[in-house]
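[Automated response] Your request has been received and processed.

Submitted sequence:
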Amino acid sequence: MREAGFLILLALTLLANGCRTGPTLAPTDLSAPGWHIRRGQALWQPKTGAPELAGNLLIASNPGGEDFIRFSKDPLEIVLARRTPAGWRLEIPAFHKAYSGPGRAPRRVGWFQLADTVLHGSTATGWTWSDLDDGRWQFANPRTGERMEGFFTP
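Generated structure:
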């Protein structure tokens, strides 16, 4: 029940930030050649004082400039994010919510910033990456309190 309340709060927060809803992007076929995929587990705390959510993390990119991020806890897809050279889309499937826009994804969306750091080696201003013990990592925005901590499987 706690997670459902959190997801409602997340959806309302995103709506309040003025993201535009746009058309659905074509399905992502991660079995197609060229995708670089990282899988693991993560804890996500969207802001200071918010409860942490644990789930499976998948981050992928292809040579065509697409990035795909999925954070899920079976059987629930919590966050789906996709970025193409033409635009971006963020979905919260449990609530049938989607936000998208042309061009670059908003810097305030931590999932896209995590993908930039993990897949492309560039950490945005305001975000920090820390290597922890035993192959774990932490990605955080000290200003907002958003934090992700996890590990990737080899």
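Summary generated for your ticket: The mean pLDDT is 85. The first strand starts at residue 36 and ends at 45.
If you did not submit this request, please reply to this message.
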